[in-house]
Design goal:
- The protein is mostly helical and about 150 residues long.
- About 65% of the residues lie in helices and about 5% in strands.
- It is built from seven helices and two strands.
- Strands 1-2 form a two-stranded antiparallel sheet.
- Helix 2 packs across helix 6, helix 4 crosses helix 5 and helix 6 packs across helix 7.
Length: about 150
């Protein structure tokens, strides 16, 4: 491959990251469908992943942890409540404060989705090598610490 071929084949890092994100998203949706589970969008999986069975969080905290606006998080939470995956209970403090928690159905969906994502990571590790995958995880975690 010539230097000109390499320049022509060069993709900016955001595009490579987008390809990776798309692969994870497409595979997650396909595998949930194959498991006969109602579709869960990657955005919804992100919301579910930030919750645990014993911890309810405010929409503002979920938004902060997910790196999205409160409005975006509110929309996703509303959809997940309508699907029976999340519950909303009055929170302490402000009158309109609410805490968002997982329902039993939400816990099952979250656990299934996270299991699929772990499988996908394992597959990626087989492609790249376990050391390279761990290095990638550490590098990305360092680059975007929260």
């Amino acid at each position: 491959m010539t230097a000109e071929d390499r320049r022509a084949a060069y993709l900016p890092l955001p595009l490579l990251l987008q390809r990776g994100q798309r692969w994870f998203s497409d595979e997650l949706v396909a595998r949930l469908d194959a498991a006969d589970v109602a579709p869960t969008t990657p955005a919804h999986t992100t919301v579910l992943a930030h919750l645990s069975q014993d911890t309810a969080l405010s929409i503002a905290e979920l938004a902060r942890r997910s790196g999205v606006s409160r409005q975006t998080m509110h929309r996703a939470v509303t959809q997940l409540i309508d699907e029976g995956l999340l519950s909303s209970t009055p929170g302490p403090g402000f009158p309109r404060s609410t805490l968002i928690g997982l329902t039993a159905a939400g816990t099952r969906r979250r656990d299934l989705a996270l299991g699929i994502l772990r499988d996908l990571e394992r597959e990626l590790g087989e492609r790249l090598g376990a050391g390279t995958l761990e290095e990638l995880r550490e590098t990305l975690a360092r680059a975007w610490q929260r």
